[in-house]
Structures are given as C-alpha cells and as structure tokens.
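Sample A.
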Amino acid sequence: QVQLVESGGGLVQAGGSLRLSCAASGRTYNIYHMGWFRQAPGKEREFVVSINALIGSTNYAESVKGRFTISRDNAKNTIYLQMNSLKPEDTAVYHCAADPGGSNWRRAWWGQGTQVTVSS
C-alpha cells in the first residue's frame, strides 16, 4: 500500500500562483508514476499532469501547459505542482495519485485531495 498526503491548496486571485505538494509513504518502491488530477463541482475528474518516478518524464493536459509545472524530490518521495497564471476555471479539488504502472491509473493510490479556489 501507498499513502499520499497533499498540501498547499487555498484561495488565490486570478493570475496568482499556488504550489501543491504530495508526500508518499509506505511501499513507494511500487510507484511507477505519480500525477495530479482535479475535479470541479458537477464535473468528472480530469487528468492534469503526471511524472515518471524513475526518469522524470512528464505529461501535461493541454489546459495547463505553460502554466503548471510538476517536479519531484525522490529523496523525500514527494512531488510538487507549481501552478502559475491561475484562472477561475482551475478551481477544483486537486488529488494526487500514484500508479504502479500498466493500469492507466485504474489501480492507482489516491490522496484525500486539496481545494484550490481561484477568484475572478
């Protein structure tokens, strides 16, 4: 099992920045890649960004390219999401996920989520 704890959400004005963190614990050697998903009220959960735990390759949703940056600190088993130029449509609960590979997130472990609210 892997446990994930997110932090760093909050309220920010449009154009502002926030940095989210996600710390993994437990059997972290099972993690193939980690990522962030978000879910806005009344909408389905959507993929935001992922990072390969070993080689660090990344994959971004088109809606956040150029504004969000994912990074990792393997020594701390932690990933970060730097969010710049935030827009009201970025408002959502952001969930950290860790996937063991080969499941397209179907067997992922999930954090409890952290609220990000962007005011206009």
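Sample B.
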Amino acid sequence: QVQLVESGGGLVQAGGSLRLSCAASGSISYIKAMGWYRQAPGKQRELVAAITNSGRINYADSVKGRFTISTDNAKNTVTLQMNSLKPEDTGVYYCNADLGVFRPDGWGRGTQVTVSS
C-alpha cells in the first residue's frame, strides 16, 4: 500500500495562488503516476492534473495555463501550483497514486481549497 499526505490547502481570494503538496510513503515502487483530483460540494470527483513516471502530464481543460503539476522523485512528492484561482476551483483536493491495473489506487485524505470572490 501507499500512504499519501496532502498539505497546503486554505482560503484565498480570487486571483490568488496556493501550492499543494503530497508526500508518498510505503510501496512507492508501484507508483505509475500521481495526480490531483478535486470534489466540489454536490459534484463528482474530477481529475485536475496528473503526471506519469515518464513525465507525461495531463490537465483538466478548466485549469490549463493556471495550474502546474510537478514531482520530486527524490522526496517522493507531487506538487500542484495553482495560480489565478477562481471561485469555481473551490473544493476538496485529493492526492492520487496510480499503482497499475492490479492494485487499487492510493488516495490521500484531502485538503480543502476555498476561493472567495
């Protein structure tokens, strides 16, 4: 199993920035990709950004040009830099680890991001 611990959420005004970090521990050798998902009240959890071990990156259309995902393999962390935040970015942000098709994904407990207008 993989344990994921998020940090960096909070309250920010529209147009502001936040930086989320996620530290992975445990069976990290199984990690194929890491990413961030978010869930707004009353909505389904959605992919925000993901990065594979080979460096391939995928962003949700709604965050392209504003968010940047990166990894520090030496520290087993993934970071999401969020700029030009909008109220619609509000939600609980979850760190995710893709462990391949034969193992369930790892999930963090989530960190709240609130963007006020």
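B remarks: The chain has a mean pLDDT of 95. Residues 96 and 107 are 5 Å apart (CA to CA).
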